[in-house]
């Protein structure tokens, strides 16, 4: 596949985006390493409970990045740079409002949420401590999402990479100092993450404020813009919630199959997540490029870029699938899997590999339609594909973890059908600001 100028643009956006995507989950991994070394098993379990809650919140609020990317890119493509910054500022105000609301709601509910996991008394107490302190970082965490969306919409994925890497390093240093140096326990780990997230948010606020100053854009919230961002975000929230339902259902089914099946499923999920980061990087490029080209009124360029990114998705998925097959014999050893888990994992990795090209197309078209502002369709498609998955998952429950992964493949194929049919039409090709 010869490299063209369009390919170079895709790579310019996708490669830094991949680095930023990988850096984000390293926050919790650094916490796990430091807490495990300094505080022991009980604290690690508490971190696992609180981390699951926080990860779910981040995943549900990712619309702040996606929706802002689409709106800023469209206005920028239309040449309305001041309005592009206005969209970005309003997106950040929405993020701040949601973050403050999460503190107000989450602080009193933290014990009840933790109790749902059924952990022991000491573990639950530490989980509540970590969760409550971490919620103080929610405004910063969500501002980072919205700020990332602003810069992606402006076709800048390098700055988010720099901020993500810097925040990760700061998080690791602060956690080590607070937990191992000062002996603050699990609270120290939470405070380190809060400070790192808040400082990362401060960087985005400075960058956006400078851009707004250049464009003569007020930094005060525009209620109409915030309301519009919230309306678009609600549709993306439904889309994301449907995805979480699918993954949660799969985890519940795997848990009921047995310990070995759950372990094999969990490891395969980690492998799949890493591959998803690579494919999602192309989707982020798709969001930015599609929003800009449609804003500029260039339908032909939008179609051409979409076709090229779909090709990238197919080839990237095929390469990743081959890599999974090549790494398949050694992967169980990397996770120190016992013989029962190893046998299941070796079988499960086949469907993981086979469905990667499908995932590549799905991720790209998902990003393209988000960039086009086609959120309402994506919300409905999310509902229908989830309904298609659930019967397949229930049927797979009686046939083992490999069948469960094949059911996830059915879900991806259902998404492929809904997305390709939409992309083949013209309803999403709305041009202008």
Automatic annotation (TrEMBL):
It comes from the Bacteria. It is found in: Cell membrane. Its main location: membrane. GO terms for molecular function: antiporter activity; xenobiotic transmembrane transporter activity. Keywords: Cell membrane, Membrane, Transmembrane, Transmembrane helix, Transport. It is a multi-pass membrane protein. InterPro entries: DinF-like, MATE_fam, MdtK-like. One of its GO terms (cellular component) is plasma membrane. The chain crosses the membrane at residues 12-34, 46-67, 88-110, 130-151, 158-180, 186-208, 229-250, 262-285, 312-332, 344-365, 402-419. CDD domains: MATE_DinF_like. Belongs to the multi antimicrobial extrusion (MATE) (TC 2.A.66.1) family. This is MATE family efflux transporter. It comes from Nonomuraea cypriaca.
């Amino acid at each position: 596949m010869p490299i063209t100028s369009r390919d170079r643009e895709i790579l310019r956006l996708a490669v830094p985006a991949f680095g930023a995507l990988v850096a984000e989950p390293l926050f919790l991994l650094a916490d796990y390493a430091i807490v495990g070394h300094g505080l022991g098993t009980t604290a690690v379990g508490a971190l696992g409970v609180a981390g699951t809650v926080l990860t779910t919140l981040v995943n549900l609020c990712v619309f702040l990045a996606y929706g802002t990317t689409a709106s800023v890119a469209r206005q920028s493509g239309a040449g309305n740079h001041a309005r592009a910054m206005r969209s970005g500022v309003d997106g950040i105000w929405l993020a701040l409002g949601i973050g403050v609301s999460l503190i107000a709601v989450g602080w009193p509910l933290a014990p009840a949420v933790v109790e749902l996991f059924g952990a022991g008394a000491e573990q639950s107490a530490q989980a509540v401590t970590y969760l409550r302190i971490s919620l103080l970082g929610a405004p910063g965490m969500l501002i980072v999402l919205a700020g990332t969306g602003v810069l992606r919409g402006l076709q800048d994925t390098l700055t988010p990479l720099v901020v993500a890497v810097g925040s990760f390093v700061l998080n690791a240093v602060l956690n080590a100092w607070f937990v191992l140096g000062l002996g603050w326990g699990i609270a120290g780990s939470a405070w380190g993450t809060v400070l790192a997230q808040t400082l990362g948010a401060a960087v985005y606020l400075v960058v956006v404020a400078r851009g707004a100053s250049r464009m003569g854009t007020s930094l005060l919230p525009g209620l109409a813009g915030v309301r519009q961002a919230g309306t678009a975000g609600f549709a993306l929230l439904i889309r994301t919630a449907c995805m979480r339902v699918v993954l949660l259902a799969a985890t519940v089914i795997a848990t009921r199959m047995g310990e070995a099946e759950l372990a094999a499923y969990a490891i395969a999920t980690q492998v799949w997540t890493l591959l998803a980061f690579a494919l999602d990087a192309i989707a982020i490029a798709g969001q930015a490029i599609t929003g800009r080209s449609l804003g500029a009124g260039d339908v032909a360029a939008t179609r051409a870029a979409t076709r090229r990114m779909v090709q990238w998705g197919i080839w990237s998925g095929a390469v990743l699938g081959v890599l999974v097959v090549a790494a398949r014999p050694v992967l169980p050893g990397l996770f120190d899997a016992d013989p029962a888990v190893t046998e299941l994992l070796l079988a499960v990795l086949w469907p993981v590999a086979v469905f990667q090209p499908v995932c590549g197309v799905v991720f790209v078209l998902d990003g393209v339609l988000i960039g086009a502002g086609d959120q309402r369709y994506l919300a409905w498609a999310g509902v229908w594909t989830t309904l298609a998955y659930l019967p397949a998952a229930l049927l797979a429950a009686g046939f083992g973890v490999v069948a469960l992964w094949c059911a996830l493949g059915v879900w991806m194929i259902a998404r492929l059908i809904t997305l390709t049919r939409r992309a083949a039409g013209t309803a999403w090709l709305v041009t202008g600001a």
